[in-house]
Recover the amino acids of this structure.
């Protein structure tokens, strides 16, 4: 909400207050202040000019040579290329050596050989945003009113000399979404009297509203109050400059005298209004109802909307003419031919307005106020003020009477609070008189009986409902800086991680020690990505009102998010990436609408794991490097009985380079290369991923690691090379060796794999190193030979190997 202190000063004296001091006071007492500024800061020597004459530039087909009266003895010659420039009009002139927007200096110059003494400016060139410049002048210069005096500074004409304070309204303080609400707040902060003008409406006695509207209907659950007036014989034209200035200072584009008035009243009262061209209504009825499913409405932005049966619409008894509280319909738009105006003021169901604006992505000034709440006490007054102003600015007449449906209660809310409660909560010793003064400054009615305040809160402060709200009001107006500072009291207890928290942190530390960097991805993704790389079958959980099409579904895996991260890096020429993520995924079954939250761990690696150096060769990421990282994790966590089983069950993974991971016979994850089709979608090279059900790892029994001193007795090694059928896995052979190697077998390592010449096509040659060690004595050769022979015999028996 952009607040002009000049406008605010009409209600409460602030004009003598320093802008920055006022902004700081608002921020410390009420709500955050985003910025405070003046549009004319840094600008100088920009004045009103009157174009006396104009002739075409001899060397240009679009430039004109203008003689401009700028209040000097002689007119200035200025070359201008604006398409709407003409003689006998008042314009904005930047004189030689002036400064305009974007810190641009204007000098005397020549344009194609013709001297130009300055520049005729558009609003954008003064620093105005394109979004607030009237469409009529969007591609040309701005034309000033005929009463503008040549030579006078332009800033006061355009409202650029006003101090603007941009306040950031929190959802609970929607009363500050109006100038009158801000005036009440400033009056309370500075203990100044607030004087709010109230409209005096002048109605014609020759006509009444029943001649135009025979039926107005609005269910109370959709529109707790609904009012309409009719203004006839209106002439549509530009609003006066003072009104346009107030709108663009507030960030709103001026359109015409009718729409501008509704926006002005919206800023003044915080009451959204909507104006209809009555002659386009096609009916004498106004019916507010829920839309029919699939019903269509083209809104003022030209978009065709397919409505839901939860949307509130204003109809002519048959067809929708407005999406209530959000945006009007194009079929009843005010245009240059409009003469008869139907003006609406209402309160609409906030939750339905919120759902509609979110679904349709229509976040208007009106919908924001309906969602957060409006002052129900001024719904009718705002309507009267707007109707009278439209009549005055449009040379029209207000038809007698207004139609009012479902008038809402405007009685004060009574909230009780004691002095003792206030002081006990704030740690203060405030007297009853101080507290009473604060409530009265806020404009609340106060009765004090035996230490208990009965506070009558007006409906303009609908955020105050309970005693705690009154305590907050006392605290902020007394001053947070004035509250006493105390240290917390009570017993202190040492904090520590739970076993689950400790293991999760240990897991992250292990991933980082293995060379992976942590990534944090969105918990929301697309439905297609959510259903990929899943460890279990489940239903998706989709949002009713997603922020964007890329964030519609709660994630069911972590790999998709990591691939997005790697793709982002690859797009920025970072092709060697190793990432992991620890987080929750969400699975939903048919029996429960609420999804289960499961802790997961995932990793994704692509490119080079290590770059080549003068003494080391580069390390290219492959399946075995990725598997080594996972093995390292399991070993450090104390997890045993790990098996990798080749699988084709994951369609997003390469069918020949993927394995499921089992611990003690229970599936805990998968590992492998991403399918080429998926990699093509992400524009990536070979990428290897793994995903683990971390919750299962947390819950599993773990072998406690007991560190022992290095044995002082020598190790004994035996090598064995064997020809074995290709269908037999390395894991199965190692398990067999460990089970039959005796108590002194400490390690088994595969150090050679060979397929090719001198070996049958159906077999492969594997070579293993077996290490034996007795920590208490030197091993005898006979003991090692006996254990080794036992291993060989069992391998022959179980796998029919041939020793090479």
């Amino acid at each position: 909400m952009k607040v002009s202190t000049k406008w605010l000063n009409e209600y409460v004296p602030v004009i003598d207050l320093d802008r920055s001091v006022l902004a700081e006071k608002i921020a410390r007492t009420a709500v955050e202040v985003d910025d405070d500024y003046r549009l004319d800061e840094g600008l100088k020597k920009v004045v009103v000019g009157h174009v006396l004459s104009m002739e075409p530039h001899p060397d240009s087909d679009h430039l004109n040579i203008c003689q401009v009266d700028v209040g000097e003895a002689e007119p200035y010659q200025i070359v201008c290329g604006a398409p709407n420039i003409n003689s006998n009009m008042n314009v904005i002139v930047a004189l030689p050596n002036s400064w305009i927007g974007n810190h641009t200096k204007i000098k005397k110059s020549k344009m194609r050989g013709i001297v130009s003494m300055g520049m005729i400016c558009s609003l954008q060139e003064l620093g105005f945003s394109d979004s607030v410049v009237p469409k009529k002048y969007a591609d040309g210069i701005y034309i000033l009113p005929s009463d503008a005096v040549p030579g006078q500074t332009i800033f006061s004409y355009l409202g650029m000399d006003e101090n603007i304070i941009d306040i950031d309204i929190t959802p609970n303080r929607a009363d500050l979404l109006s100038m009158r609400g801000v005036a009440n707040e400033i009056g309370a902060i500075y203990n100044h009297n607030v004087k709010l003008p109230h409209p005096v409406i002048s109605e014609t006695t020759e006509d009444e509203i029943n001649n135009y509207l025979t039926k107005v209907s609005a269910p109370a659950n959709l529109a707790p109050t609904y009012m309409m007036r009719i203004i006839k014989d209106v002439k549509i034209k530009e609003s006066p400059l003072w009104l346009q200035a107030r709108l663009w200072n507030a960030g709103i584009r001026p359109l015409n005298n009718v729409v501008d008035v509704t926006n002005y009243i919206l800023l003044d009262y915080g009451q959204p209004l909507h104006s209809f061209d009555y002659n386009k209504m096609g009916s004498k009825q106004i019916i507010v109802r829920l839309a029919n499913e699939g019903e269509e409405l083209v809104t003022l932005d030209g978009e065709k909307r397919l409505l839901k049966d939860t949307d509130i619409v204003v109809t002519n008894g048959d067809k929708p003419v407005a999406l209530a509280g959000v945006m009007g319909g194009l079929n009843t738009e005010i245009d240059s031919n409009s003469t008869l105006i139907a003006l609406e003021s209402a309160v609409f169901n906030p939750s339905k307005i919120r759902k509609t604006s979110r679904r349709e992505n229509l976040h208007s000034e009106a919908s924001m106020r309906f969602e957060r709440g409006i002052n129900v006490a001024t719904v009718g007054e705002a309507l009267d003020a707007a109707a009278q102003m439209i009549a005055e600015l449009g040379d029209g007449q207000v038809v007698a009477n207004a139609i009012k449906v479902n008038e809402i209660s405007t009685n004060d809310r009574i909230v009780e609070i004691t002095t003792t409660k206030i002081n006990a909560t704030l740690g203060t010793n405030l007297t009853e008189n101080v507290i009473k003064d604060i409530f009265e400054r806020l404009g609340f009615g106060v009765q004090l009986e035996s230490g208990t305040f009965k506070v009558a809160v007006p409906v303009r402060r609908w955020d105050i409902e309970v005693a705690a709200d009154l305590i907050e009001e006392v605290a902020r107006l007394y001053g947070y800086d004035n509250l006493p500072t105390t240290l917390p009291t009570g017993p202190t207890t040492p904090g520590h991680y739970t076993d689950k928290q400790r293991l999760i942190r240990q897991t992250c530390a292990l991933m980082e020690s293995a060379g992976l960097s942590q990534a944090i991805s969105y918990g929301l993704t697309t439905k297609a990505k959510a259903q990929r790389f899943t460890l279990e079958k489940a239903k998706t959980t989709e949002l009713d009102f997603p922020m964007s099409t890329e964030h519609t579904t709660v994630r069911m895996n972590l790999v998709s998010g990591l691939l997005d991260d790697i793709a982002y890096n690859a797009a920025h020429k970072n092709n060697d990436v190793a990432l992991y993520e620890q987080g929750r995924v969400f699975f939903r079954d048919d029996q429960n609408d609420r999804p289960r939250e499961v802790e997961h761990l995932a990793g994704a690696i692509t490119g080079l794991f290590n770059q080549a150096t003068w003494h080391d060769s580069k390390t290219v990421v492959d399946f075995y490097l990725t598997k080594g990282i996972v093995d390292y994790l399991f070993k450090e966590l104390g997890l045993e009985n790990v098996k990798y089983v080749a699988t084709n069950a994951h369609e997003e993974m390469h069918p020949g380079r993927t394995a499921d991971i089992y611990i003690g016979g229970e599936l805990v994850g998968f590992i492998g290369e991403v399918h080429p089709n998926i990699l093509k979608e992400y524009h990536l090279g070979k990428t290897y991923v793994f995903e683990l059900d971390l919750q299962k790892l947390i819950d599993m029994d773990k072998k406690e690691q007991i560190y022992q001193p290095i044995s002082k007795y020598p190790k004994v090694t035996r090598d064995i090379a064997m020809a074995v059928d290709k269908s037999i896995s390395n894991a199965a052979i190692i398990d067999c060796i460990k089970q039959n190697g005796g108590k002194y077998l400490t390690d088994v390592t595969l150090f050679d794999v060979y397929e090719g010449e001198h070996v049958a096509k159906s077999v492969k040659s594997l070579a293993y190193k077996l290490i034996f060690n007795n920590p208490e004595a030197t091993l005898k050769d006979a003991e090692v030979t006996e254990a080794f022979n036992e291993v060989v015999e069992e391998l022959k028996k179980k796998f029919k190997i041939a020793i090479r």
The domain at 499-699 is CATH 3.30.930.10 (BirA Bifunctional Protein; domain 2).
